[in-house]
UniProtKB/TrEMBL annotation:
GO terms for cellular component: cytoskeleton. Signal peptide: none annotated. PANTHER family: KIF-BINDING PROTEIN (PTHR46321:SF1), KIF1-BINDING PROTEIN (PTHR46321). The keyword Oxidoreductase does not apply. This is KIF-binding protein. It is found in: Cytoplasm, Cytoskeleton. Belongs to the KIF-binding protein family. Residues 481-536 form a coiled coil. InterPro entries: KBP (IPR022083), TPR-like_helical_dom_sf (IPR011990). Its main location: cytoplasm.
Length: 552
């Protein structure tokens, strides 16, 4: 008993020294140098060797009977095999004493093998040895020594391959797989990493692992059940996140999105993590759905994030993190609207099609895809999608105006946080998004006057933004001046085009004269904007030449 306590004490001492050395030294140090002796060795490497050597010593002392009995059995069996004499074999088997010895040794060896591998002491020692190798691999990974780290992780997995289902080993096995798949993915071995993670995730429900850290093993610290459960949950979610990342890297978009939704569901079930971070992850996932044309899932996840964020705004004193999350949610809604407008507009743009390519009665209008994608729903979270919210292709002016009204509201909410004073670039981007929305709404207007009115509002908004930036934030104005000027020119060209349509449409003479005057004003305005753009271009050209001259 005293010897066991002494052994545990030695292991604890060695482990404490190992922790101290891991803070001071790196395993990668002195790897390329030739060492003359122990005094030149890497202290951290040496300490790892001491701990592993001590564990090996304990294993050999406590389980040496297995090898001794195996050696005796092998020697007796060797005598039997080496003799080719039938007479000798007959005499050998006639001796009951020798036969009894063989049977007893077989029973002893089988018992030792079974009892040793099932014993608490053996399992603990194996988990200690594996944990030390695992910790060493983690340090190498932190030092970006990927091949060396992978080699140690493979060694650690090989040590416990027969014990991976044991409750005291299962959690350690999951941790090693998590790190090993990360290293494999870094090395480009995605197929192997995917296979390992898929197997680990499928098997996690079969085990009831005992959660512990390397410190718990060596220092016998008392474990909190709640903390242990949280660690297991985090590891499970981390494995899912790793697999989702690998699926995305391999181009399996649908599998990636499904896993990301499952991760959010797991976090929702166990109430793991920050509520704010969950909502942010949810509307970022919505952006990915929208980017891939899945507007139904995109809207569902946006509303789910809104359901989580809205109750957080009830405080009298505003929380900046909540306000920032609400502003980013608003920008996600705007992104959804712009993408939906773009998707709806493309089929309606006239295309030059040869008459002979058109069959009689066939329409040249492209058809909207009718494939229905799976809707990923959250269990335990009430999400109601408004009936008037558009999630399919926009067909007419009323739908376009309804969507614009909704998105304009979200732009206003985003501006509450992204102000011109604190976030000028984000504020400008929101104004440019509003300009895009005006452009899309104008496309759906049915008459020229209405289209012109929308474009005029678009121009006024951009011109006002340009003047405010020039006066209030001149530095920001210099950064976005080219983009703003390009937008202003685009609006002027659209307005000129509309005036030309009115000019050459069959109308009365008085109206035509008015249109001519209006067209002249538009041409003058366009000329002014063109001159402004040339000035900006010449200024930029001078700056570039100045930089080149200074460089030379």
């Amino acid at each position: 008993m005293a010897e066991t306590i002494c052994t545990e004490s030695d292991l604890q001492t060695y482990f404490q020294e190992l922790k101290k050395h891991s803070v001071t030294y790196k395993l990668g140090q002195m790897q390329q140098q030739q060492t003359a002796g122990d005094e030149m060795q890497n202290p951290l490497q040496k300490q790892f060797g001491l701990v592993l050597g001590k564990i090996e010593e304990i294993l050999s002392e406590n389980f040496s009977g297995l090898f001794q009995h195996s050696r005796k059995l092998r020697n007796i069996y060797k005598i039997r095999i080496q003799s080719g004499s039938k007479t000798f074999l007959g005499q050998f088997f006639d001796k009951l004493e020798q036969t009894s010895i063989i049977c007893k040794l077989l029973i002893v060896v089988i018992y030792i093998v079974k009892s040793s591998k099932d014993s608490e002491e053996y399992v603990k020692l194996m988990s200690m040895k594996t944990s030390i190798i695992y910790e060493k691999a983690k340090i190498l990974l932190a030092e970006n020594l990927l091949p060396e780290s992978l080699k140690l992780l493979e060694e650690a997995l090989d040590l416990i391959k027969d014990l991976e289902e044991h409750p005291k080993i299962a959690f350690l096995h999951m941790r090693i797989v998590n790190h090993m798949t990360y290293v494999l993915s870094r090395l480009g071995q995605l197929d192997q990493a995917k296979e390992m993670l898929t197997k680990a995730i499928d098997n996690e429900t079969k085990y009831n692992p005992e959660v512990y850290s390397t410190d718990d093993l060596f220092l016998n610290t008392k474990k909190d059940p709640k903390i242990s459960e949280a660690k297991l949950t985090r590891l499970t979610i981390n494995n899912l996140q790793m697999l989702a990342w690998i699926q995305a890297k391999m181009g399996n978009t649908e599998a990636h999105l499904k896993l990301q939704h499952e991760i959010l569901q797991r976090q929702l079930d166990v109430a793991e993590g920050d509520v704010l971070r969950w909502a942010e992850s949810c509307f970022r996932l919505a952006n990915v759905f929208v980017n891939h044309g899945d507007f139904q899932n995109g809207v569902y996840h946006l509303i789910a994030a809104e359901e989580i964020l809205n109750p957080l705004e009830v405080a009298v004193v505003p929380n900046l993190e909540v306000c920032a999350a609400q502003a980013d949610l608003a920008r996600s809604w705007v992104f959804y609207g712009l993408q939906l407008f773009e998707m709806s507009r493309k089929p309606k743009i006239p295309k030059d099609i040869e008459p002979e390519n058109l069959e009689e009665g066939e329409s040249s209008k492209p058809k909207t895809p009718t494939t229905t994608k799976q809707i990923y729903l959250f269990q335990g979270l009430k999400v109601e999608i408004p009936q008037n919210l558009t999630m399919t292709q926009i067909e007419n002016k009323d739908q376009a105006q309804a969507l614009f009204t909704n998105l304009h509201k979200w732009i206003k909410r985003a501006r509450l946080f992204y102000t011109l004073r604190n976030y000028p670039l984000q504020y400008v981007n929101l104004c440019l998004d509003l300009s895009e929305l005006y452009r899309f709404v104008s496309f759906y207007e049915e008459d020229i006057d209405s289209q012109y009115s929308v474009q005029k509002r678009r121009y006024d908004a951009l011109e006002t933004l340009s003047q405010i930036l020039k006066e209030m934030r001149p530095t920001c104005y210099v950064m976005v001046n080219v983009e703003l000027t390009r937008e202003l020119i685009e609006v002027q060209m659209e307005m000129m085009n509309l005036n030309l349509k009115k000019l050459y449409s069959p109308t009365d003479e008085l109206k035509t004269k008015g249109d001519k005057d209006s067209l002249k004003r538009q041409i003058d305005a366009f000329s002014n904007v063109h001159d402004q753009l040339e000035n900006v271009a010449s200024t930029l050209d001078m700056e570039v030449k100045k930089i080149i001259a200074e460089t030379n």
